[in-house]
Amino acid sequence: MKKTFHIIILGLFIAQSLVLYIVEGMLPVPFIAPGAKLGLANLITVIALYALPRKRDVCLILLVRIILATAFGGGINAFLYSVSGAAFSLGAMMVLQKTGKFSIIGVSTAGGIFHNLGQVIVASLVVENIKIMLYLPVLAVAGTGTGILIGITAIFTLRHLKKLPIYRRMQEGD
């Protein structure tokens, strides 16, 4: 990709994920489980994972979104939870995608589950109580459901994105 086009694409992905993060914060959470969220911003991460040839770009998009989201309304704890969840989630998704044996829905579902795992590990370290891990099965169920929904939405979005001329340009390497 040409440098200017590359910067524009990354900026668009970052802006979209940030907007989804902000919108999600305005929505009433319909879950019984406290702390469970839809993970709308992860939709952009999944799309970027499949649309962009360089995985370091996906990492950059995710990190910049977390930094900006923290700057807009989070403290150090929000940053720690977000970074840990994102690292676990993205790591799991990248490994599963690379095997080629998992669908987008499977990759996204793993991302939802591992995001919760990363956050629960940080929570247990912050409060110095391993018993918080008992909450993981509840969050794993929520992560599975939201991961499936994000995966289905990503499939639909990628199907339409691939029809656009811009998609071919995104696939070009340096």
UniProtKB/TrEMBL annotation:
It comes from the Bacteria. InterPro entries: Hpre_diP_synt_I, Hpre_diP_synth_I. The keyword Cytoplasm does not apply. Signal peptide: none annotated. Keywords: Membrane, Transmembrane, Transmembrane helix. The chain crosses the membrane at residues 7-23, 29-52, 59-82, 102-127, 134-158. The keyword Chloroplast does not apply. It holds the Pfam family Hpre_diP_synt_I. Coiled coil: none annotated. This is Heptaprenyl diphosphate synthase component I.
